[in-house]
Design brief:
Layout (H helix, E strand, L loop, with lengths): L1 E2 L5 E2 L21 H39 L4 E2 L10 E5 L5 H10 L14 H7 L4 H4 L2 E5 L6 H25 L1
């Protein structure tokens, strides 16, 4: 309640929802610069979406083909289905996913076999009727819109080299 100029009191109500500023009298302030930046980023993403998707798919395909052509028995999982443009899952027969992921990480290439209790790749693949021995030999790889062709070429060389060494070692042990 606020006194008026003529001596009587009047009640002023919020005109903006939220009421977090000035003791509930007006809505909170917004970070206008951040909202403008977000709007600009969304516009740029929308404008470049098709190009980014097509380039990422091209690089993912190059990665997949390079690995399949270089590693004996390697297989693209679900390759005939519609998939995310930036993610692939491959099977490397005779190489346990943890061994491969460990050696790849040493060379700066990161494959994923899942994370957390409920997100492991192996049980997920088994639930999709992939043979258990194949699921134990599978890794997932993701690309970003910043991934370059040179990085893909480097990754292919490292993945092929390490997978071949692991297959050879596995044959000797078995």
């Amino acid at each position: 309640i606020m006194p008026s100029l003529v001596g009587s009191e009047m009640c002023i109500r919020d005109r903006i929802a939220d009421g977090t500023c000035q003791h509930g009298m007006r809505g909170g302030t917004l970070n206008t610069a951040a909202l403008i930046g977000l709007s600009t980023a969304c516009e740029e993403a929308k404008e470049n979406f098709d190009h980014v998707v097509m380039e990422t798919v091209r690089l993912k395909t190059k990665l997949e083909e390079g690995i399949v052509n270089g590693v004996r028995g390697a297989k693209i999982l679900f390759g005939t289905l519609d998939r995310l443009p930036h993610v692939t899952a491959l099977s490397f027969p005779g190489v346990h996913f943890e061994l491969l992921a460990f050696h790849l990480k040493e060379q700066g290439v990161y494959g994923s076999f899942g994370g957390g209790r409920l997100q492991n790749l192996e049980p997920l693949l088994c639930s999709m009727r992939l043979a258990p021995y194949e699921a134990k030999c599978s890794l997932s790889f993701s690309l970003s819109y910043l991934t370059t062709e040179a990085e893909v070429d480097r990754a292919i060389g490292i993945i092929v080299d390490i997978a071949q060494k692991c297959q050879t070692l596995s044959q000797v042990i078995v």
